[in-house]
Amino acid sequence: MDTSESGAITLLPPFSDRDRWTAEGWCPMERTLELIGTRSAMVLLREVFYGAGRFDDIVRRAGVTPAIAAKRLRQLVDGDLLERKPYRDPGQRTRNEYVLTDRGRQLFPIVVALMHFGDHLPREHEATIALSHANCGAELVPEVRCAAGHEVPLRQSAASIVRPTENPARGRR
Amino acid sequence: MDTSESGAITLLPPFSDRDRWTAEGWCPMERTLELIGTRSAMVLLREVFYGAGRFDDIVRRAGVTPAIAAKRLRQLVDGDLLERKPYRDPGQRTRNEYVLTDRGRQLFPIVVALMHFGDHLPREHEATIALSHANCGAELVPEVRCAAGHEVPLRQSAASIVRPTENPARGRR
DNA sequence: CTGTATCCCAGCGGATACTG
DNA sequence: CAGTATCCGCTGGGATACAG
Question: What is the model's pTM?
């Protein structure tokens, strides 16, 4: 079962170029990138993950211009990653704030994985931001497991094409 | 310890705009995006993760033009995510192939997280590609845990600024 | 406070053609 | 086979100014 020597996802069956998984949205990664594949989308989402809700806060903390922030936030709302939620402080007028939708919260592993990778990049003495488990203080780590709970290293991972009527992963569930 | 109502990373201490973590490479996420923040970088890496090594294969399968492929691959090599490894089939002349470096392999959780998210996006009857554990067939799932092994949901995660001489996570290791 | 509207430029990325 | 070179449109994203 050790597929090749060291570092690649096994293709099941070894699919060829004929499969053209590049074409219109085949690749799940590209579908994701269509939603969050810009720098501005990610930094705006980052601020919402950090608890910013009001437009002004998000914009200032994300460090982007209001123009692209507005445009990108609209796309994120359209993509059902964020929603604008009416909200009122007692005695204040009603405001809208941007909050993560259920789908947006599913980006959490992506956010953690991106931050973790950057955190462990060599850096020349600059400050950084580390994520930790609030309950125990230990560093957050993105892991790849299977639904059965096994930790899965790169060499034990397999990719299979799933057509609408077929089953994933060699037919086994 | 349940930080706020539902969906945000707790900031420890609640850092303000004064901290300007936006500035030059503070945010680890942005450092990562500097390396892999383009669509072409990701689709090229995807093909290398899928085992493609030769320039031609990568280009054709990734569906990008040779021009930008060459440019991006050079950047990925410069960023120490890929390396060009001389290689020879018996009886053939020596070739170069692109392979993941140790650092490149660390992108695995990011790749899985991006694919997993895209895989669970609503799609209209198109085919997709699913990742699974070669050993047991179960679907791959990106998880967020802490170094102590606890599974960490969004609401239990905390972010803290780490300056060169300080310790992460409220000083606890 | 929450955005819009313009202007502008750099870079991404496709197409096509060409070299060692 | 492994790239380069050139042309070019599109968009991302900064700056500045304005509007409800």
Answer: 0.92
Q: In chain A, at which residue ranges do the beta strands (DSSP E only) sit?
A: 10-12, 82-87, 95-100, 128-133, 140-146, 157-162
**B61 three-state secondary structure:** helix
Q: pLDDT by residue (tens digit) across B86-125?
A: 877 777 778 889 999 999 999 999 999 999 999 999 987 7
Report yes or no: B107 and B116 within 8 Å, Cβ to Cβ: no
Tell me the chain B residues in contact with residue A49 when contact means C-beta distances shorter than 8 Å: 8-9, 154
- Choose the closest CB to A113 out of B42, B127, B142: B142
Rg (CA), chain B: 20
**Are A21 and A169 a contacting pair, CB within 8 Å?**
no
pLDDT in tens, A129-162: 999 999 999 999 999 999 999 999 999 999 998 8
Say yes or no: Cβ of B70 under 7 A from any atom of strand D: yes
Angle at A112 between CA B159 and CA B157, to 5 degrees: 40
For B134, the token pair is 């070669």
